[in-house]
Each structure stands twice: as C-alpha cells, then as structure tokens.
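Q&A log
Question type: sequence-to-structure
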Amino acid sequence: MRVVKTLSIAFVVVCACSAMAAATASADLFLASAAGLLLLASADNTQAFIFHGNELKCTALTAHGVTALRSLDQHATVSYTGCKASFGGGTVDEPIVALYLFLANGTVHILKPILIFVLNTIFGECHVTVEAQTLLGITYHNNASGDILLLANVKSIKSEGLGPACTYSLESGGTYTGNALVFVHGGTIQWHA
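Response status: OK
Response body:
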C-alpha cells in the first residue's frame, strides 16, 4: 500500500512539474545572448501622448536597463526629449523620465508616477502626473540584426493635471503611440512567443 501511495505522490509531482515547464516554455520571453548586458533603446521619431484632449509630442527617446539570458519581463528607464505641447504652445525643458517594467506578453507597468512639467504656455504652467499603473498595448518585432522593434499603442492611461493651462481631475482617457529600437551593447536580444 505504501508503494502505491508513494508512486501516486511521485506521479502527481512529475505531472505538476511537467505542467509548470510547459507553461514556462509557452510563455512569451525575452532572450539575450548573455546576462548582464546593457539594454539600450532609442527612437528619433515622434512619441505622441494625449492627456485630457491635449497632445504632447516628443522627438526622441533613450532608454537603458540590464538584461537576463531568459526573462518574462524587462526593467527600463526611459527619457523622452524634444517635447512640445499643443496647449498654449508649451515646451518641456527637462527630459520626461519614466520607469517601466515591460512584460514579454505586451503588458507594461508604470512603476512610479511620471511627472510632466509644461512651461512657457500662453495660459500658464501645466503639471501632468501620470499614475503608476498597468497597461496593455505593446507589441514586439524581431529584426534580423538581433534587436527588437517595440511598437506602442497604449490606451486608457490614468493622469491628472494641475495649473492654469490644464487643471483636470484623475481620468483614464490618455493615449501613447510611438516606437523604439531595443538592443544590447555587445550582444543580441530577441522576443519569443
């Protein structure tokens, strides 16, 4: 009787481990050529945000992080520069810095609030705060050169505004569109579904 019971427990453990391995094997992953490589991203095209019906366009972005050999997610600090607002002709003098956790399944976590300060507007200053939140809308395409094209079409972004140019209560109608080339210094990175 003990042998049957022991074999039953062993069978259950093997089945559970096999199910976990299958789930991991089928999960979307980032695969790098080596761990610890410096992850970089850049874009020299328009990154467009819309908050409370007002557009903010940035002409470039840069990003950095550190890679793992196999990972379900990737931390990245992203800086947006060359930003101008449609409301009141405002500009953003300092880079807009965001801390993200990108999941290989297309989800992105904004890990801490993003602060946007628009100045020199006709109507006065504007402070937009993008809440820490989880969003969908990221897709990845592998390039033959060993890097990834990240495409963002993110909707339902929560934000609130304060200041003469843009006071509004917390709402979830914000959007973000743009793309970036993700690569690693001295190696390759690819996305696998």
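Response note: The chain has a mean pLDDT of 87.
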